[in-house]
């Protein structure tokens, strides 16, 4: 027997089987956690034009409210993974959600743009506990044969959260103002966080590493970064997420301008495309279980590229179709790459999964902001081609480094 966080389990624990009550509770709980995290993280994205007007800042500056939050998240994932190794996955995720709710409420009360940036960075850092730990938690609590599907279910929860955050914030902003819009999303996120805390069963797979057996963090990170396969997976997160958040950051500015001239209350409904990602993330995990992860990942990247190219057409119905296709491809790819990074790691699984999230949200922050400079100066067509180029590089890295006879 080996002492765990609960104090009773052994290393022979095989994970909750698909269909068991505990399996369903874990998946539902993590779906709620995904909602709580990503509703808060992205709630300002659909109302960036209103924030820009209210605070008298440019499009690229207002987008910093997304970038600093994701940068804070990226910076925090490794520290959260270390905390989770010490106190357990579940307690760390609970503390993460509580802290994020406090900072989220503070955002709604801050009177100036600089203060908002600081609070959004802190909110992102608090939210980092969920993506830093969730995949490792699934690997420990779910039977190995079902982790790809479970990972897809968690990712589908994140898409619902991202959708709700945008859909709720925009109409409330139209009726009152953007601070109330963000505040209502924080309240909804707090409710989802409470559901997560109630639903999660007692952890059975966490084994606290003995102090004498702990590798230095720098050594664990280096062992993962020197692996071409792990580095390729991390680059999937950086490049694909960078491109994806670029589209959603600046499409609203494009559609508010001629020839579309759409109000934000209507633009917010474009985020319903996230429902396609809810479906594709889970579907990609299911297909990967029988066909292998690499073919699904490459197919999803191609789908994403097709979707971006379609948005070049100056027709609102066509742009909507392109956005849906882009979203299907992105969340399918993200579902595979994020779950694969935890499954493929041979050392420091929690830190390996956190490194994926560091690259993922680093891409959101760096590329999401830098692409705004392209959009401001050269317009949508150049921005879309940047996104395509990022996806092509991601696909080339995957095809080169991830070819392996094993499917895991």
From TrEMBL:
Q: Give the bilayer topology.
A: Multi-pass membrane protein
Task: Spell out where the chain crosses the membrane.
Answer: 26-43, 63-83, 95-119, 180-199, 220-248, 260-280, 292-312, 318-337, 358-376, 382-402
Under InterPro entries, the record lists: MFS, MFS_dom, MFS_trans_sf
Enumerate the GO terms in the molecular function aspect.
transmembrane transporter activity
Q: Residues in domain Major facilitator superfamily (MFS) profile?
A: 26-407
Recite the UniProt keywords alphabetically.
Cell membrane, Membrane, Transmembrane, Transmembrane helix, Transport
User: What PROSITE patterns does this protein map onto?
Assistant: MFS
* Localization terms from the record: Cell membrane
Primary site of residence: membrane
User: Which GO cellular component term is one of those annotated?
Assistant: plasma membrane
Family classification: Belongs to the major facilitator superfamily.
Q: What is this protein called?
A: Putative MFS family arabinose efflux permease
Organism source for this protein? Answer: Gordonia humi
């Amino acid at each position: 027997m080996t002492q765990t966080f609960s104090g009773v389990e052994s290393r022979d624990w095989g994970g909750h089987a698909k269909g068991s009550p505990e399996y369903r509770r874990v998946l539902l709980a993590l779906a709620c956690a995904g909602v709580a995290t990503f509703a808060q993280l992205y709630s300002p994205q659909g109302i960036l034009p209103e924030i820009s007007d209210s605070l008298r800042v440019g499009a690229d500056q207002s987008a910093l409210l997304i970038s600093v939050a994701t940068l804070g998240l990226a910076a925090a994932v490794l520290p959260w993974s270390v905390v989770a190794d010490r106190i357990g996955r579940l307690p760390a995720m609970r503390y993460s959600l509580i802290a994020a709710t406090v900072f989220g409420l503070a955002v709604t009360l801050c009177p100036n743009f600089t203060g908002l940036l600081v609070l959004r960075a802190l909110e992102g850092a608090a939210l980092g506990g969920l993506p830093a730990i969730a995949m490792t938690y699934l690997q420990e609590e779910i039977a190995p044969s079902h982790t790809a599907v479970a990972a897809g279910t968690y990712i589908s929860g994140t898409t619902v959260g991202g959708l709700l955050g945008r859909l709720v914030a925009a109409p409330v902003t139209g009726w009152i103002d953007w601070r109330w819009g963000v505040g209502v999303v924080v309240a909804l996120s707090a409710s989802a966080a409470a559901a997560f805390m109630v639903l999660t069963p007692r952890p059975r797979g966490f084994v606290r590493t003995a102090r004498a057996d702990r590798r230095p963090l720098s050594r664990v990170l280096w062992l993962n970064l020197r692996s071409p396969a792990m580095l390729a997976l991390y680059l999937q997160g950086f490049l694909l997420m960078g491109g994806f958040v670029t589209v959603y950051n600046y499409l609203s500015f494009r559609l508010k301008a001629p020839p579309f001239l759409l109000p934000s209350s209507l633009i917010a409904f474009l985020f319903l495309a996230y429902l396609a990602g809810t479906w594709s993330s889970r579907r990609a995990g299911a297909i990967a279980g029988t066909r292998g992860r690499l073919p699904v990942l490459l197919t999803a990247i191609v789908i994403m590229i097709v979707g971006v190219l379609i948005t070049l057409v100056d027709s609102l119905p066509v742009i909507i179709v392109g956005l849906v296709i882009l979203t299907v491809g992105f969340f399918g790819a993200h579902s595979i790459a994020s779950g694969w990074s935890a499954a493929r790691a041979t050392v420091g699984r929690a830190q390996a999964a956190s490194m994926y999230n560091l690259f993922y949200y680093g891409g959101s922050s760096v590329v999401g902001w830098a692409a705004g400079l392209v959009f401001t100066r050269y317009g949508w067509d150049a921005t879309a081609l940047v996104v395509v180029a990022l996806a092509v590089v991601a696909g080339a890295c995957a095809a080169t480094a991830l070819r392996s006879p094993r499917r895991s």
